[in-house]
Amino acid sequence: MKTYLVGGAVRDQLLDYPYHERDWVVVGAHPEDLLALGYQQVGKDFPVFLHPKSKEEYALARTERKSGPGYHGFVCDFSPDITLEEDLSRRDLTINAIAQDEDKAIIDPYHGQRDIAAKLLRHVAPAFAEDPLRILRVARFAARYTHLGFTVADETMALMRSMSRNGELATIAPERIWVELSKALGEQNPASFFEVLLNCDALAALFPEWAASFTPALLTLVDTAAAQALSLDQRFAISCSNLDASSCKTLCQNLRASNSASWLAERCAANTPLPAMESAEEWLKVLEQFDYARRPEQLANFIAIAQLLQPSETRLAILADAGEQLSAISAGELMSQGYKGAELGAALREQRLAALRAITGVN
Ligand SMILES: Nc1ccn([C@@H]2O[C@H](COP(=O)(O)OP(=O)(O)OP(=O)(O)O)[C@@H](O)[C@H]2O)c(=O)n1
C-alpha cells in the first residue's frame, strides 16, 4: 500500500499559494486494510476514509466511467490494482492531476507542472466532458488564479463550449451551481468566473437573461467589489444588478441562492438605479425595503453597492443620513403623550415623513 498527496494541496504548493486542505490517494489497498488501521469510512459512492488522527481524507485510487446521465450514472472501480496514473487521469485539470509521494517526489504524468509554468487551466482528458460541473470548477479556478496570469487553454474552452451547447449543464443540481458560484464570488477576481462562463456559452445555457445582462462595466465592478472586500451577498447583488426585480427573483429561486443573498439582490435590483424618489413617501419606501430601523447594516450594504454602480449619485449620502436620523426617532415620546396602536403607528410615520422632508427637501 502506498499513499500520495494529490489535488489542490500539491497544486497550491507548486503555485506557492496557501491551501487549507490535504487530500490523499491510497494505491494497492482494500477498504478492509484501511478499516483495520483505524480509518473511518465516509464515502457512499466510492470509498473515502478519514485518517484516525489527522482526519484528512484518504481515497482509494479509482477509475470512473460514465454509465448514464446525471450524477449517479458513474461506475467506479477501486480495486487494489488501479494505478496512481489511472486515478490521476480521471481528474479535471492537469494542474489538479499531480501527485507527491511520501519522499516528496512529484509524479506528474499529465504535465501539470508544464501548465503551471504556462499558467494554463487545461483538461486532462476527453472524459472531462462526463462531468459538466467541471465547467463551473474551471471558471472558479479562473476567478482564483487570474491574478497569477492563468487563462483557460483554447482546447479546454472549445470542449466546454461544445458541452454547453449540447445541453449538458441541465443535469447539474442547482444547489451545486450555487456552491460553485458562492465559492467563486469569494475569490480575488470573481469577474473571471462570469467571463469564462460567458465565453463558453455556459451562462447563456444556464441563465439566459442573466448572461445577457452582463456588460464589461458590470464585470469590472464585480472585481472592484472583491477588491474592496464587499461581502459575498453584495458581490452577488452587483452581479444581478442589471436585471429587473422580477427576473432577479426568478434567478435567485432557480439558483437556490441563500436567503440573505436573495434578500439583498432582489432589493438592489429593484433600487438601482435609484428610483425617482420625488416625495417623502417614496424616500421612506426605499428605506423601509431595506428595513433601515431594525437592520441598519443592510441599508449600508445597499448604499455601498449603489455607490459602486452610480458613483455620481449624490442622493446616496442623503439616504444614508436619512436612515440614521429616522432610526433615532423613537415611539417613546408619542407613547407618553397617550398614542397607542394604529394611531401611534400613523403618528410615527408622520414624524418620519416630516424628518424626510427636512432632510431631502422634497415634499
Ligand atoms: N468534479 C471534480 C471534482 C474534483 N476533482 C478532483 O478532485 C480533487 C479534489 O477536489 P476538491 O477538493 O473539490 O478541489 P481542490 O482541487 O482541492 O480545490 P480547492 O482548493 O477548491 O479545495 C481536484 O483537485 C481534482 O483533481 C475532479 O477531477 N472533478
UniProtKB/TrEMBL annotation:
Ranges where the Poly A polymerase head domain occurs: 3-122
UniProt binding sites for Mg(2+): 21, 23
Which top EC class is named for this enzyme in its record? transferase
Ribonucleoprotein among keywords: no
Gene Ontology MF terms = transferase activity
**Which reactions is this enzyme annotated as catalysing?**
a tRNA precursor + 2 CTP + ATP = a tRNA with a 3' CCA end + 3 diphosphate; a tRNA with a 3' CCA end + 2 CTP + ATP = a tRNA with a 3' CCACCA end + 3 diphosphate
- Chain ranges of the tRNA nucleotidyltransferase/poly(A) polymerase RNA and SrmB- binding domain: 149-212
Other comments on record: A single active site specifically recognizes both ATP and CTP and is responsible for their addition.
Q: What does this protein do?
A: Catalyzes the addition and repair of the essential 3'-terminal CCA sequence in tRNAs without using a nucleic acid template. Adds these three nucleotides in the order of C, C, and A to the tRNA nucleotide-73, using CTP and ATP as substrates and producing inorganic pyrophosphate. tRNA 3'-terminal CCA addition is required both for tRNA processing and repair. Also involved in tRNA surveillance by mediating tandem CCA addition to generate a CCACCA at the 3' terminus of unstable tRNAs. While stable tRNAs receive only 3'-terminal CCA, unstable tRNAs are marked with CCACCA and rapidly degraded.
The name this protein carries in UniProt is CCA-adding enzyme
Give the organism the record lists.
Zhongshania guokunii
Top-level taxonomy: Bacteria, Pseudomonadati, Pseudomonadota, Gammaproteobacteria, Cellvibrionales
What gene is this protein translated from?
Answer: cca
